[in-house]
Amino acid sequence: MYQDVIIAGFGGQGVMLIGNLLAYAAMDQGLECTFMPVYGVEMRGGTANCTVVLSDEEIGSPIVYSPKSLIVMNQPSVDKFQPRLAIGGVLVANTSIIDPGILEQKRLRTFSVPANSIADKLGTAKMANMVMLGAWLEATGCLALESAQGALDRVFSKQNSRLIPLNEKALKQGAEYVRGV
Amino acid sequence: MKKNDTNLLVKGNEAIALGAVAAGCECYFAYPITPQSEIPELLSESLVEVGGTFVQAESEIAAANMLLGATACGKRAMTSSSSPGIALKQEAISYMAGSQLPGVIVNICRGGPGLGSIDPSQGDYYQTTRGGGHGDYRTLTLAPASCQEAYDLTIRAFDLAFLYRNPVVVLGDAILGQMKEPIKNWKERVVLDGKGLDWSLSGARNREPRLLKSLYLSDGALAGHNRKLQEKYQAMRKECDWEEYRTQDAELIVVAFGSMGRIAKSAVRKLREKNEKVGLFRPISLYPFPEAPLDRLAAQGKGFLTLENNAGQMVDDVRLAIRRHADSGLHCVLPGHLANPDDLLGPIEEAMPAKAG
């Protein structure tokens, strides 16, 4: 088993958080994993991306140029990373703020997920990142949804632990959206 | 970071800090710089918790001289920085080498020259393996490629520093410092027994005074001192460490260290899927450089390609090691570019002996 993903968006959209969550979920399943963050010079509002690699064997490079999958939270990330996605790769795009017209459909397995609106209905658009990760888990099938839900307490600090149940729900709704599509 | 959690995902920088704690580090001195600031950040808590001393110095130069002072007292001590800061520490490192003091220095290398950038780089290979400061001296240099190795080699750095009474450098880069991986093999903090410190300055009550110095003015004294140091560097050769991956039937050996080594490993795997007979040789100790195993591979008639995230530095050592049988090609990813396996496939394929002729 080998899977890699680049997760990209604006700083503040929680790109690093779901990258970390995915790596923890993989680790808890006994897989090898690497998490490699790349920050812009800015924090909030700047661009941020991270690469997560999961494997049942020792991992070589933590850096991937042509990933097998991509989670994009904003339009600039589509421009930058979509052309690099491997043929037949999984593209999960946040179409609440990305124009679906720019997404490649033929070359890729593309999943348009209105993550902001789904998260909004749960109470806050801040959880759009969790919706996206849930959608990715369902689209790739490489880890069970429960493994990510079970790892939430490893990425939230104690004072934020009250947010865990709602984030569990956001992960689930992302997965359900993809299953429905 | 949760306490008592042995199943942790940590950054390479954090792995180094936790390795220092496990190695029994008693004092840590540093001045912050990207991309290694997680080391002081974590040690400001973790080292103090176990009774150690943490000092954020007023400058890199001060931190390096505090390291000199602490190790002169026989303390297990460390400093860390990134390239421009390490350049500032070189005077103290030379004095430590001359006075035979066991300091541990961590360099999470970034782009240069000058202030360069905060991107990954391997541009400090020459500086680290040739001494770095003035005079004829060497620092033992260890180059981890994973977070587990960063943890393990930091512990080893302290042991080697005291075994040889010599500064030891752990050389990483911004990839290693910032990436996260699980650490599986945690160690308990070493309990120090105070043995083997019959040279340290611990207070001269009831014994003859001791002197630690690097100044030798009397006739023949410096030559004698240098001879002793050179003999010590020869003795360090048995600490050579390296990883070989699919070298046995390989026609081409790719040589790369640190982060570049594991990126190259992915490229080697991809080429093996295309039945290219290529293998990887990853030096783990950069000084002493693992010459003997490279010479052995060269004697078997294999070709060589050195891959570096600099303008070509380690390639000198590779060529010296294999000079009786072969030469090495060179492919450089200049600092400022982030290396990835796909970009290495072409250069490696071109260097395959069948194609290179």
Protein model, in words:
Chain A has seven helices and six strands. Chain A has 181 residues and is an alpha/beta fold. Chain A has a six-stranded mixed sheet with strand order 2-3-1-4-5-6, with helices on both faces. The mean pLDDT of chain A is 94. The A-B interface holds A 20, 23-24, 27-28, 32-38, 59-66, 154 and B 2, 7, 9, 175, 178-182, 262-269, 338-343.
Q: What topology does this entry show?
A:
The complex is a heterodimer of chains A (181) and B (357).
Chain A: E1 2-10, H1 15-28, E2 32-39, E3 47-55, E4 69-72, H2 75-81, E5 90-94, E6 109-113, H3 115-122, H4 128-140, H5 145-150, H6 152-155, H7 164-180
Chain B: E1 8-11, H1 12-22, E2 27-30, H2 38-49, E3 53-56, H3 60-72, E4 77-81, H4 83-88, H5 90-98, E5 104-109, H6 125-129, E6 140-142, H7 147-164, E7 168-173, H8 174-178, E8 180-183, H9 221-235, E9 242-245, E10 252-255, H10 258-273, E11 278-283, E12 285-287, H11 291-299, E13 303-308, H12 314-322, E14 328-332, H13 341-351, H14 353-356
Parallel strand pairs in B: 2-3, 2-4, 4-5, 5-7, 6-7, 10-11, 10-13, 13-14
Antiparallel strand pairs in B: 1-8, 6-12, 9-11
Helix pairs in contact in B: 1-2, 1-7, 3-5, 10-13, 11-12
Short account of what is shown:
Chain A is an alpha/beta fold. Chain A has seven helices and six strands, in the order E-H-E-E-E-H-E-E-H-H-H-H-H. In chain A, helix 3 packs across helix 4 and helix 4 (128-140) crosses helix 7.
What distinguishing features does this structure have?
heterodimer, A: 181 residues, alpha/beta, Pyruvate-ferredoxin Oxidoreductase, domain 3, 7 helices, 38% helix, 22% strand, B: 357 residues, Rossmann fold, 2 domains, seven-stranded mixed β-sheet, five-stranded mixed β-sheet, 14 helices, 14 strands, 40% helix, 18% strand, globular
Number of domains of chain A: 1
Tell me which CATH architecture of the largest domain in chain B applies here: 3-Layer(aba) Sandwich
List low-confidence stretches of chain A.
none
What level of helicity do the residues of chain A show? 25-40%
- Written as H for each helix and E for each strand, in order along the chain, the element string of chain B is EHEHEHEHHEHEHEHEHEEHEEHEHEHH
Identify the CATH class of chain A. Answer: Alpha Beta
Distance between the termini of chain B: 54 Å
Could you tell me the CATH topology label of the largest domain in chain B.
Answer: Rossmann fold
Please report the total strand number of chain A as a whole number: 6
Largest sheet of chain A: 6 strands, mixed
Briefly note the structural class of the backbone of chain B.
alpha/beta
**How many angstroms does the end-to-end distance of chain A come to?**
25 Å
Order of helices and strands of chain A: EHEEEHEEHHHHH
Shape of chain B: globular
Tally of individual helices of chain A:
7
Q: In CATH, what is the class of the largest domain in chain B?
A: Alpha Beta
List the strand order in the largest sheet of chain B: 3-2-4-5-7-6-12
